[in-house]
Amino acid sequence: MTEQPEPADITPLNDLEEKLARGGQPDADPVDVILSFLNNEVYIISSDALEGEDSQVEPLVLGNADGQPVLAVFSHPSRVDTQYLEAAPNVLGTQGAAIIANIGDELGMVINPGAAYGFEINPEGIANIKRDFKRADEVDPNPAGLEGE
C-alpha cells in the first residue's frame, strides 16, 4: 500500500489556492490567479520580526533552478516548509498587491516553493503585472478617454 499525502497539502485553503489548483486545467485563466494573488493576503517569511508599523523586514529570498534570486511568498502560513522557518521564523501577512508594488526590478517571485500549489514569476513577468494590473481604487474611471455627453 502506498502512503497517501496529507489532505492539508492538496486541499485548497483559500481563494488563491483554489485558483492555483485550477491553473493546470484547459479552461484556466492566468488572469484569475494574478487577480486573486493581488487581492488576497499572502505571507512572506523573515528573520526579522515587525517591531512597529514603520519597521522594515528583510524577507527570505531563494535561488531558483537557474540561480536567479526569487522572493519566497506563501498562499497560507501552513504552506511554509520547516526548512524555511529555520532560516526565517517570522511569518508575516500582507496583500499580494503590496508585494508586487515593492518588489525590486531584478527579483523574481516563487509562490509556495516546494508545495503542491505554486508557481514562479520571473522579473519580466512581475514588471508586466505592475504595468497591466491596477488596484480597484487606482482604475481610471474613463479609460477610453471618452468625453461626457
Supply database-style keywords.
149 residues, Trna Endonuclease, Chain: A, domain 1, six-stranded mixed sheet, 6 strands, 19% strand, SseB_N, SseB protein N-terminal domain-containing protein
Can you describe this structure?
The chain has a single domain (11-135), classed as Uncharacterised protein PF11572, DUF3234 (Trna Endonuclease, Chain: A, domain 1, 3-Layer(aba) Sandwich). The chain is 30% helix and 19% strand. The protein contains six helices and six strands, in the order αααβββαβαββα. The chain has helices at residues 7-10, 15-22, 30-39, 82-87, 96-102, 123-132; strands at 41-46, 61-63, 69-74, 90-95, 108-111, 119-121. Strands 1, 2, 3, 4, 5 and 6 form a six-stranded mixed beta sheet that branches. Residues 1-8 have low confidence and may be disordered.
